[in-house]
What does this fold into?
Amino acid sequence: MLTVSVKWQKETFKGVEIDTSQLPYLFKCQLYDLTGVPPERQKIMVKGGLLKDDADWSTLGVKEGQKMMMMGTADEIVKAPEKGTVFMEDLPEEEQVLAVGHTAGLFNLGNTCYMNSTIQCLHSVPELKSSLVQYSHSGRTNDLDQSSHHLTLATRDLFGELDKSVKPVSPMQFWMVLKKKYPQFGQLHNGAFMQQDAEECWTQILYTLSQSLGSSGSSESADAVKALFGIELASRVHCLESGEESSERESIYALKCHISHEVNHLHEGLKHGLKSELEKASPSLGRSAIYIKDSRISSLPRYLTIQFVRFFWKRESNQKAKILRKVDYPLELDIYDLCSDDLRKKLEAPRKFLRDEEGKKLGLKPSGKSSDEKDVKMTEAEGSSNTNGMSSTMTTTESAEAAGKEMQLTGVYDLVTVLTHKGRSADSGHYVAWVKQENGKWIQFDDDNPSQQREEDITKLSGGGDWHMAYICMYKARVVPM
It folds into this structure.
């Protein structure tokens, strides 16, 4: 690690650190944070000419305390539009994106698209951001290791930067902390950082936040991750050969959509994922036997995360291969029939309330029925839950929440983020996040290049070719006051 000073225009920035084990591009991202000059516009003089993004620091002769000079123009500050009628297409591009919602992208630090897309998806959860705000520098308890504490702080700070900025943000500090906590994300191949699995990054970040927010001692933060993303499963494990049977309970943070030649739709893949075979010792047989594990959801989260199991280990090539099969997924997902009997009973009243609310919009009278035939599929709710219908239901919900009424889950969820992968292998390709804004607009976050998308194009990310295809979907629960 070296410390240098950098002169830019009339300013001198002292104590700028250079991590010589990293690429110079990261140093440029630091300077972007300080000056507002994007890395591609920076001209930094070093031995042999201008500093290149992929240069080797050991050959440049940079010394401790050295004074360096940078040239380049900073991004212009976006001015507020003048009063009067201004059409969206007439606004500067940055203001057009700003009018849609959160639009700050993240610089790619060298195959870090897996991390950037994960961050953009998790950043879209306002309740998670609120819990992180409650977490302070002194929030660490004796039960929490220092690296987890620092990663939680880095997540909080990065979310804050994204909220304040309209131009791309450098996630370098977060990445440094992430690599220290989980060294696999700092793996190198031929001097370049390796592409990593976005699902592994998502899981590790969420696990860390669950540990730190759950032990922070703040009532607002305690068990925040479990309440927002935790799924409880009740399983029946039985052996067909011996007739032995037992029950299990477990907590997970994502459902798996298993993909086979029989799976054409998300719902089918989820059913496959809740049933599995395992081999274990049978006491009555005195040897190993095959057991069938049937699981049902016994507790639902506010945000339902689903992973499409697209990658598997291919022995012939000794690497992860990808299943390209098309698997359709809906904008509105009803998982009532995947729930346990006890949970279904709890969902009956909220689902009736939701049906009645949807019926009012269609001019129908409230129904007194709560029969299973209407609860198995929320046909009325799904059929009329377009953007306008959903906003109407949400208005009722928001006013009820403001009044302090308890909100109940319905088993119906609305798609809010899609994390996609483009390419044939998990060790290569490109990850992108597609995030629904609070105003209903969709933004594609392709690293530092956000762009507005049409909702009808979001469900076309279902696979079947070399285009971006859904790898992780996150759905937000439709809740009602009870």
